[in-house]
Amino acid sequence: MTSVLVLNGPNLNLLGTRQPEVYGSATLAMVEDACRAHAAKIGFEIACLQSNHEGALIDAIHDAKGRHQGIVLNAGAYTHTSIALMDALISVEIPAVEVHLSNIHARETFRHTSYIAKASLGQICGFGTQGYLLALDALAAHLKATGAA
Ligand code: DQA
Question: Which of 27, 110, 118, 119 is deepest in the core (most CB within 10 A)?
Answer without folding.
Answer: 119
